[in-house]
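Query structure, 331 tokens:
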């Protein structure tokens, strides 16, 4: 739903409201929105988990690559195609090799691992939960492994971990007695542990911290006035890097828990997606990550059916979600 606006710095309020009104008006037939790389890779992550009933790196990258070669024009990040070419050329021998060589060995810090992480998070939550809801180690380990096949930079895979932990918390916490600040605080605790030992003077990633971004999220939540869009764009970020988009998606989910002056709609799910797109920049990805969190929190019954009929393959994806649930049942 966000892809028609991807890359735009300024999205007119009326323009965006009209876009949603057309989708929600059953008498107006608008063509479905083709899904982008975000859905393409999310879908293949889920199918791989379903078929293997566990994470299999080689199978997952093969599925990513096959989907990519089947239709490479779904708005993939500019560097990720190289990984798929290199994987295919080497017959998928080392599923982690090509990603680790990207960007002169630094690996990608793009948001591509975070944008597709929902099925991995749901699988880990369901499969590994043995009554101990406090131990996040299984989910962190699984997400790290599933991310590094394309995103070996720590900011890239940590972004995926943060998004997965947000999905896990959203599933865990009661939606009728939900405190946005406690949610942010819990994520800050996990990310603080992860960032222990980071060198703030490192010339490459020194000072780049998810905790700092989450503190900003809390500041916005505590403020009585809605932050200006420019403030969010410049400080929280709306870009293709994980650091400049995952905390933003989390903020969209949390901000949408209350009425928003800039998005006067009653349905929380709609408000969340609409608000995420209104921020501009990487709209498809930030909206899909925010949607994954609010979906985990509220369940699929809150998704307006008119949204679904406009999304390419939404029926297939519903079936995949049901299959994922079955496949992730603890054995
Ligand atoms: P990626 O791994 O290619 O990363 C995205 C971009 O981030 C790269 O193309 C680089 O510009 C930059 N980048 C990442 N790591 C480094 C690094 N170590 N050094 C320098 N630059 C770096 O792809 P991805 O899968 O992470 O990207 C996901 C995003 O790409 C999503 O927003 C998705 O929707 C898509 N996207 C497509 C378009 C488009 O117009 N086709 C625009 C934006 C985003
Ligand atoms: Mg319509
Ligand atoms: Mg995309
Ligand atoms: Mg995008």
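Result returned for the query:
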């Amino acid at each position: 739903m966000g892809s028609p606006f991807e890359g735009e710095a300024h999205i007119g309020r009326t323009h965006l409201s009209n876009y949603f009104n057309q989708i929600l008006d059953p008498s107006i037939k608008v063509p479905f929105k083709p899904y982008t790389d975000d859905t393409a890779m999310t879908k293949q992550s889920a199918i791989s988990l379903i078929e293997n009933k566990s994470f299999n790196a080689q199978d997952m990258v093969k599925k990513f690559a096959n989907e990519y070669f089947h239709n490479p024009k779904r708005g993939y990040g500019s560097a990720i195609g190289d990984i798929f070419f290199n994987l295919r050329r080497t017959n998928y021998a080392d599923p982690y090799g090509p990603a680790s060589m990207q960007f002169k060995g630094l690996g990608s810090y793009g948001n591509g691992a975070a944008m597709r992480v929902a099925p991995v998070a749901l699988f880990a939550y369901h499969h590994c939960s043995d009554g101990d809801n406090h131990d996040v180690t299984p989910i962190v380990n699984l997400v790290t492994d599933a991310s590094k096949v394309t995103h070996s930079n720590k900011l890239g895979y940590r972004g995926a971990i943060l998004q997965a932990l947000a999905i896990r918390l959203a599933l865990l916490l009661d939606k009728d007695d939900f405190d946005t600040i406690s949610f942010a605080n819990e994520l800050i605790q996990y990310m603080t542990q992860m960032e222990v030992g980071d060198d703030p003077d490192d010339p490459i990633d020194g000072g780049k911290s998810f905790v700092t971004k989450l503190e900003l999220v809390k500041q916005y939540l505590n403020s009585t006035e809605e932050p200006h869009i420019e403030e969010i764009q410049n400080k929280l970020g709306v870009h293709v890097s994980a650091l400049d988009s995952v905390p933003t998606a989390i903020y969209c989910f949390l901000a949408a828990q209350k009425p928003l002056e800039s998005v006067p709609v009653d349905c929380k799910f709609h408000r969340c997606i609409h608000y995420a797109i209104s921020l501009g920049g990487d709209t498809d990805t930030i909206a899909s990550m925010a949607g994954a969190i609010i979906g985990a929190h509220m369940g699929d019954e809150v998704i307006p059916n008119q949204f679904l009929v406009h999304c390419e393959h939404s029926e297939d994806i519903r079936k995949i979600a049901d299959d994922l649930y079955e496949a992730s049942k603890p054995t």
